[in-house]
Amino acid sequence: MVKLSDVNSKLQKAHYAVRGKIVIRAQELEGQGKKIIYCNIGNPQALKQKPLTFVRQVLSLLEYPALMDNPGPAAAFPADAVARAKMILEKNPTGTGAYTQSAGIPFIRQAIADFIQKRDGITADPNRILLTDGASKGVQAVFTLLTNKENDGYMIPIPQYPLYSATIELYGARQVNYFLDEKNEWQLNALELERSLEEARQNGINTVAIAVINPGNPTGAVLSKENIRMVIRFAREHKLAILADEVYQENVYAPGLKFHSFAQIMHELGEKEVTLFSFHSVSKGFLGECGHRGGYLEIRNMPDDVYAEMIKLQSIGLCSNVDGQLVTYLMVAPPKFGDASYELYEKERAAILGDLKEKAEILGRGLSAIEGMHTHIPQGAMYAFVRFDLPHPKGTDPETMTPEERHKYEAARDSKYCLRLLEDTGICVVPGSGFGQQPGTLHFRTTFLPPKEDITALVEKMKRFHASYVEKIKSA
Ligand SMILES: Cc1ncc(COP(=O)(O)O)c(C=O)c1O
Known about the structure:
This protein has helices at about 10-15, 20-30, 55-65, 65-70, 70-75, 80-90, 105-120, 135-145, 165-170, 190-200, 225-235, 260-270, 305-315, 320-330, 340-370, 405-425, 450-475; strands at about 35-40, 130, 150-160, 175-180, 205-215, 240-245, 275-280, 295-300, 375, 385-390, 425-430, 430, 445. The protein is of the alpha/beta class.
């Protein structure tokens, strides 16, 4: 039998906090009948968000095309859903049960290029677009492509979405942390990028790329155009590739803010040297189709011979799943004005995004009013990364600890806090140490995906819990 000691040590070392110990405990408590408010993961449909009708109608017809031959069932679908399914079957006659081209179905890659053109006003090359099983697989493909030597490193934001740190660990690459600026709405800071790169250099790391998440997970921040320009200039100066994780591009709520893609700003700067990998997904936005595992990766500034390696890599896994490709197509090519499904689609879209905006406000406003908690109304994405203050237990002085001891002490504190929160209130959030945080600070990440009444209840419960937790430490 395989023993744990036989298992890849890189896998053993990798951590993925959003599905960790606290979530397992939450499931146990739920099994015992306790009501849990799951705020640990951006999985909208698990939290009662309904799928878009049009997406599921077309998908159903494609999974079982015989429905279209039978006038009875066919009448249950709007004319444009039937027409769309027929068009897809014409362009992809092998249907959902056959492998596709490794890069993905050609007409879908063209539709993605058209989507980028419409979104950004710039051309995109369908032969630099790859369909992936969610953005996660796209990110991992890029790590496979770029991790060449043992000391190759990736700059990643802190706090970050743990896909990045876990993949770095898994691939034996080196993690180069740059801190996001909490005081400046979690934007990137030029001096901090230079500091981080220089520190890596001194540690013998050959940094090959910088990853940026916009809008941010776990921060909920939306990057300004100027911030993105700064990152592109930085990447150019230091010959780094950019991984632009843009899975939350539809999730911008703050008035006056707008999503800007790295592709568009690179175009605007006339940047022809920096290789850009941009990721998008069907899991977020207003589709929330996490289970369908669809997404794409768009590449700019990559020579043909390198791209051929990327295609080879995709071909080793044959192709991404076909339903995921189809949902990606429906994401980039929604019903148009005048189509039978247009009105309902727009109504469902507006309701989902409107609801998220409202919940972001309830959460941000409510939590920031609690004494000892600090956060803003999230500008975008699906999360708030909330800083909280705790007194130190009597006799403990973190200033006397080594950096490693302090890190351990703080990780234990935020984990303990989140576990107690779960036990006492049923609220399931993720400790900040799972995403990384500045030494001396404590955070947790919460989503604002649960229904509105749960978010309102969460704020109230959190207020009472935090006050009593602090009191217990003080009086211990
Ligand atoms: C920033 C970020 N990137 C990528 C992903 C992965 O998404 P997918 O479901 O497309 O693999 C997530 C999921 O939460 C995410 O938050």
